[in-house]
Structure formats: structure tokens, C-alpha cells
Amino acid sequence: MKTDLEIKNDVLQELAWQPNVDETQIGVVVENGVVMLTGVVDNYLVKVAAEMAAKRVKGVKAFAGDIHVKYGTNFQKTDIEIGKAIVKAFEWNTAVPEDKISIEVHDGWVTISGEVEWAYQRDAAARVVESIKGVKWINNTITMKSVKITEDVTEKIAKAFKRSADIEADGITVDIIDGLVKLRGIVHSISEKKAAEKAAYLSPGVDVIINELEVIDN
């Protein structure tokens, strides 16, 4: 099992490996396998890239992000400009049902809300907003339409896990409890835990997932 110092060094190396991340702008604190990133960056995509990099490191049991986005004067946008850019980007993205999503912008903080049929549509909307200059933070409150979960959903999710190169399917159990999907078992990184949750969300009718997967470094 990795020590906190080993995890910290691995996170720093992973940050340095990212072409759009300046690791000197980001502080890394590790305590009992829990990683916190701090600092100020000039682009929301840099914040996302740094957080994803940390989550990929083996041995990271949990993550807390405290990276702030502060744009230079050349890239500062008004809330109206940000809102218009998001609307236009939604129109160009076929995965986003723009007529079902509402957008609110306040001081660069964006809230997207509404109801869609699929989890990938909700995720696509968030990814679009991430790419918009001027965005400092995203609150994704989009929900999915309630659809009855069929009996074969556990089998479908299990097959999705096996198709994924990012998930070790043998260590994960899928249960349906009171209409909710529960994931149990062992994974080896936060990114694998998140990948399993994302794969499960792609099944029809899955709106709430109880992710009890345990991150264990071995």
C-alpha cells in the first residue's frame, strides 16, 4: 500500500504529465489517501484536467478539490456573453437537447437545469459548459426522466463493465434495491470508481446510483 508521500509524488508527476496543466500553480496535500488540490488557474478546463489527473492515480481513496479559476483581463467575459456562448454551443452539439435545458449564469458560476432522457445528455451538457471561456464553476442539476428499471438491467450494466478498458468488472457487484442501482466491490482508483458509475448511468431507467465501491491500492 502506498504511503501518503508516495501518492503525493505520483499526483505531482501526473499533473506534470498533463500538457495543459502547470503543476507549479497547484498545491497537493495528501492525508490517509485523501487528496486535496489547491491553487489558482486561468481556465476551467485546466481545473478539470488537474482533478481528473489526480483521480487517476492509484492509491487515491477520495478527492477534495479547492482549485479556483481566475481569468486574465483578456479572457474575462460578462455573464451575458457566457450565457450566449453556452446557448450557441448547445445548439451545435447533437448530444445536448438544448430545448430541455435551462442556463443561469452569475459571476461566471453556471447552473444548468432541466430534465433529459439519458445520462450521456446530462454529461454532454456539462462538458460543453466546461469548454466555454469565462466559466468559473458548474452546478449541474439536470435530472433524468423516471423510467422503470427492467429486470435485466444488472446484466446490461455488468456487460458494459466488461466492455470497458477502464473497469475491472470481476471486482464489482451490481444490485437493484428499491428501484435504485447499488454498486459494491473493490476498484483500484477513483477514476475507475467514477467510470463504473458512469457506465451504470448509461442503462435505461437508471437515475440514482449508490456507489459503495471501495478504492483499494494493491
UniProtKB/TrEMBL annotation:
Protein name as it appears in the record: BON domain-containing protein
Classification via SMART domains: BON
Pfam families given in the database record: BON
InterPro entries xrefs: BON_dom, Lipoprotein_DolP, Transpt-assoc_nodulatn_dom_bac
PANTHER family: BON DOMAIN-CONTAINING PROTEIN (PTHR34606), OUTER MEMBRANE LIPOPROTEIN DOLP (PTHR34606:SF4)
Assigned keywords, A-Z: Signal
Alphabetical list of PROSITE patterns matching this protein: BON
Domain BON: 3-71, 78-146, 149-217
Organism: Aureibaculum algae
Domain of life: Bacteria
Keyword Signal listed: yes
